[in-house]
Amino acid sequence: MQQLGDENDPCFVYEMAALFFNSVPTQIDELSKNLKQQVVDYKNIDVHVHTLKGASATFGAQRMINVCIDFLKYCCANDLQGCLKCMQQLNQEFLELKIKVEALFKVEKQIVAAGGSVPIVACKNT
Asked: For 3, 86, 115, 120, which has the most beta carbons within 10 A of its beta carbon?
């Protein structure tokens, strides 16, 4: 993500992170609701998982991408237990990623506040 940012748009990385961390919970909630239906619509779940996989790829969240790949395999096999397992893993990976990224942004701010420099950390909105 930071490699995509530039001096002309110093808030890019933070904006992308905010977008990712605000949209993913909605997708996860939607997946969870779909998996709890009496009759599970695996095609609908497949669409949501592909969306999550794409968002994860854009953000560089490789571990989430890997879970999505497994999730898609279970969808193709109509394997509810496998999908539920992946749902749990996806939740866990998302929460861990969010904690790590928030910690990174906090450290970057502290470095800048102390007079140091970090690439593309001139955004005042964070």
From this structure: 86
